[in-house]
Amino acid sequence: MGESVQRTVSLNGISYRWPPQPVVVVCIDGGDPAYFHRALRDGIVPHVESFMKDGFSAVGEGVVPSLTNPNNMSIVTGSPQSVHGISGNYFLDPETGAEVMMNEPEYLRSDSVLAEFSRQGAKVVAITAKDKLRRQLGRNFDMTGGSINFSSEKADQCTLEENGIENVLDLVGLPLPEVYSAELSLFVFEAAARILERDRPDIMYLSTTDYIQHKYPPGSTEINDLYAKLDSAFGRLVALGAVVGITADHGMNDKSKPDGSPNVLFLQDELDGEFGERTTRVILPITDPYVVHHGSLGGFVRVYCSDGTTPAAVMSFAGSLPGVEAVYDKASACATFDLPVDREGDVVVISDAGTALGASEAGHDLTALEGHRLRSHGGIAERRVPFILSAPLSREYATRAESAPLRSYEMFDYVINGVL
Ligand code: ZN
Ligand code: ZN
Asked: Would the pLDDT of 5 be above 60?
């Protein structure tokens, strides 16, 4: 339904036409451009290679902090964090002093392109690897027109009422994947291909998990196996008649010392030593219930000051520490990275590509790395992401893409409005 009707959807200043063919946006969690770069060299991603030649390819920018939820929400709302409000997994409520999780849908301040289209009668499908992301992505979906929203993590529990689909395991023909596995991500694509074939939805959004990218570098057996399978899934979606746009929520960098041990700056310990205990509070917005693969160590932290400790003093001290790339006060962080002021710390500290930031050493369980080198994200160094389309751009969008840095949150605009 819908193709013959001249309808548009407007959201956050962008007008989206009705997609003339199914549109699929893929967000590869932790899909640093280096992975595609190496996979192309190794000749294991022939479909992506043809998209780059016959469609469009660039390296774009995600939002900072370069974390999963802020970027997924930016992509699906077509807006920066100042608009949709999700600037991390946690923020500190200044009134209560409590750390508040932002995973709940009520913290979102914008509707998504997906929800708007579903309310206009489009068939919209959003499939995620992890269930925590599904609930924010599915916020305000109208399921009555055949829209679907589920996670591979809970694919065995889908109901028509909540998810718009049931018996997913039968449809996909695969067992329920383990939560920490490559299969959790690959299940998303197998389900997407079956649903595209069966329902021919107007818009699909597919989001994976970065469990494998946290563990393995470009060129490793595990990565090449995953990328070869992703590539054949992309080819299958295009063969079924979809235009595919591929991006990532953030990149990924090795943050280990030459001997393989994690290269971590424990900022709370440093600040306590300089200013005294309980005069600052370090909040790690990467922290979430699924910490096994990064030990809660990322590239971006927020510091809250009290007891006469000033942001200026913290910035001056933190900025002098080895491994720190940049420090900002609240106003300059919000202006630089388009962040919501009421959820920002007094000071933002960002580490360089080779360094991770933690709070207190005692609070991090590094045994969770299971002997792997620490790979993580969150800072400016991990904001670079692929921006690849399976079809060529119109002259207008090709010109626009050359004139300014491409933001990953422009992907729906490009894939819906920008292709011929
Ligand atoms: Zn991620
Ligand atoms: Zn991650």
From this structure: no
CA 51 to CA 192: how far, in whole Å?
19
Ligand 1 mean position to 19 CA, how many Å? 27
Bridge partners, residue 90, by sequence: 101
Coil, strand, or helix at residue 1?
coil
Single pTM value for the model: 0.96
pLDDT tier at 1, thresholds 50, 70, 90: very low
CA of 274 to the centre of ligand 1 (A): 33
Q: How far apart are CA 62 and CA 40, in angstroms?
A: 22
Q: How many CA atoms lie within 13 A of 21 on its CB side?
A: 15
Ligand 2 center–CA 403 separation, angstroms: 31
Average pLDDT in the chain: 94
Q: What is the pLDDT of residues 291-311, one digit of tens each?
A: 555 678 999 999 999 989 999
Q: What is the distance in A from the centroid of ligand 2 to the CA of 204?
A: 23
pLDDT over 90 (residue 6): no
**What radius of gyration, in Å, describes the C-alpha atoms of the chain?**
21
CA distance linking residue 364 with residue 403, whole number of Å: 43
How many angstroms is it from 209 CA to the middle of ligand 2? 8
**Alpha carbon of 3 to ligand 1 centroid (Å):** 34
State the Cα torsion 332-334-335-339 to the nearest 10°. Answer: 160
30 C-alpha vs ligand 1 centroid, how far in Å? 5
Q: Is the peptide bond before 65 cis (omega within 30 degrees of 0)?
A: yes
Model pLDDT for residues 152-165, shown as the tens digit of each residue: 999 999 999 999 99
Q: How far apart are CA 61 and CA 42, in angstroms?
A: 25
Q: What is the dihedral of CA 261, 267, 272, 277, to 10 degrees?
A: -110
Contact criterion met (CB below 8 Å) for 33 and 251: yes
